Amino acid sequence: MKPWTLQRLLLTLLGSLLLWAILAGVCLMLGSSGQFAWPDDPFVRGERIRIILLASLVGAALASAGVVYQALLRNPLAEPYLLGVSSGASLLSFVWTLPAVSTVIAIGGGIYVGQQLAAFIGAVGSMFLVFGLASRRGRIEPVSLLLVGVIVNSINGAIFLLLTYVVKDPATPGGAISFLVGGLQGGADVRQVRIAAILVALGWILLLLVSGKLNAAMLSDAEAESLGVNVQVLRWGGLLLASLMTAAAVAVSGPIGFIGLVCPHLARLLVGNDQRKLLPVATALGAGLLALADRLTASLVAWHWLETVVPVGVLTALLGGPFFLIILMQSQRRGAA
Amino acid sequence: MSDILRIESLSFAFGRSKVLQDISLTVTSGEILALLGPNGSGKSTLIRAALGQLRGHGKVTWQGRPLRSWSRRALAKLVGYLPQTPTFEPSSRVMDVLQLGRSAYWGAFGIESPNDATIVHQVAETLNLTELLSRRMDELSGGQRQRAFIGRCLVQEPIAMLLDEPSTFLDLRAQVELCQLLRELARQKNIAILMASHDLNLTANFADRICLLSAGEVVSQGSPNQVLTPEILTQAYGLPMQRIEREGAAPVVVPKL
């Protein structure tokens, strides 16, 4: 039995980085040219690198948030999109950009930080609403959580649609629609992406710092406490951090579903359920796979499968939906056993 | 033998419903104190209050220091706790369960020291778990699984263990083996054990003392011989009981039907 040493942590981080680099390398060779080849044109290469890095940032944030939600809620189906956290972040992020709101805020010059903050408030607001409605006597039932998540998602979606009608903003691709189905082609603002990167990086380091405690948190509260973990502080701190990271990602991409669900489960197949290994590997997978999904959506146009580039959130939902059903059936079987 | 756990005049209520009333007891190093009593008598609540997971009125001290002065982490290095139904990931291995018991000793990023691995191996050897270390928890028998959970407590290097009905889901043989193991641990490692149980006769054979609870109050406290009398048991369980004496062995108590 090998103890979890600093060397093993660094090796895992290095391995995760390598995993991401391989996926990113593949992504670099995919694009609207439709050919699987290294881009010789510096402009095309630069553009692809930019979008791969952006996708990686968003994917990493969503996947690590998924790891944390699943561990702290002891629910294999938990992820930011299904719990309504992404749609809450997206809604408030959208509200922030409405002419009436942004004009007022722009006077203070805080539009960039402000949108992240609005997204965070939306994420946390939805999180509290979902957890509050789904918990009974301090226990959160997995299926109730999902049902409430679905309802909150649809309420957030309805408010969004209502607002788009009120402000008469047509839902065009890359525009307001990207708040409903996330994508990476909209040309996110560089300053906003930088802020998101800083928030995600800080949140991720803090989560890795407590990743050992996340292992204990998957036990019952009483057992985790007896192993020296302050469960309440860890749970709420972890959920808030994960929501902050989700909000930072959603503010630049819109809500992208299922990355937070699929990547932790894929990583579990590779390294097991030790959160100390799972967090880096799932993050790398999230970063790499979202970039890959985005490149595939671009390639679909070149291959004449589609006439225009669809938001990557459409593809992740198409692929992630069936995956979700498999996990749901597995957890129901386990519950029945 | 010194007092490891001392509880004085402890009361606890869930809302208006009183669960524990004026409980006092001590557990000394190397002894097994069994908590007996009907369902709802407050055994599990008492254990959780002793761990500080439920805040009651009264005084709880560990090694002479008030409970509140212990950090969670410091207390985790002192006391092992096993609930009625311990949680485990079905796919986790025995090794993972034992390793997790050391989490209070881990550093930032969950970094382990070489000593953590040594302790895990020592405990696995003590509990005959070495062969099972790489086995999945859901492949083990109830007895093996319970030994793994006892192992999770032991790797904490505790001076006390609080066990909530540890033999509940075990067959007779596994129950006896578990109680023998606990007695060995108490004697050889000088661990103070507070164990809730429903099995009067098994307890009579393995516990040094018994604290009998009913409706949140101590009905009787003392040696098995003193506590397991028909009068006291009838008072606690509301059921006529009879006692069968055995020469050179603990008495047997059964309901008078």
Any guess at the CATH architecture of chain A?
Answer: Orthogonal Bundle
| Helix share bin of chain B | 25-40%
The CATH homologous superfamily of chain A is called ABC transporter involved in vitamin B12 uptake, BtuC
Kindly state the mean pLDDT of chain A as a whole number? 85
Question: Roughly how many Å is the radius of gyration of chain A?
Answer: 20 Å
- Count of DSSP E strands of chain A? 2
Largest interface: A-B, 32 and 42 residues
Shape of chain B: globular
The pLDDT mean of chain B sits at: 94
The strand order across the widest sheet of chain B is 6-7-8-3-9-10
How far the N terminus sits from the C terminus of chain B, by CA atoms, comes to: 41 Å
CATH topology name of chain A: ABC transporter involved in vitamin B12 uptake, BtuC
Q: Name the CATH homologous superfamily of chain B.
A: P-loop containing nucleotide triphosphate hydrolases
- The percent range for strand residues of chain B is 25-35%
Along the chain, the helix and strand elements of chain B come as EEEHEEHEHHHEHEHEEHHEE
- Which topology of chain B does CATH recognise? Rossmann fold
Q: What is the domain tally of chain A?
A: 1
Low-confidence stretches of chain A: none
Describe the secondary structure blueprint for this structure:
The complex is a heterodimer of chains A (337) and B (257).
Chain A: H1 6-28, H2 42-72, H3 85-97, H4 99-107, H5 111-134, E1 135-136, E2 139-140, H6 142-166, H7 190-209, H8 211-217, H9 221-226, H10 231-253, H11 259-271, H12 275-302, H13 312-336
Antiparallel strand pairs in A: 1-2
Chain B: E1 3-14, E2 17-28, E3 32-36, H1 43-50, E4 57-62, E5 65-66, H2 72-76, E6 79-82, H3 94-100, H4 114-126, H5 142-154, E7 160-164, H6 172-189, E8 192-196, H7 200-206, E9 209-214, E10 217-222, H8 224-227, H9 230-237, E11 241-246, E12 249-255
Parallel strand pairs in B: 3-8, 3-9, 6-7, 7-8
Antiparallel strand pairs in B: 1-2, 1-4, 4-5, 9-10, 11-12
Helix pairs in contact in B: 3-5, 5-6
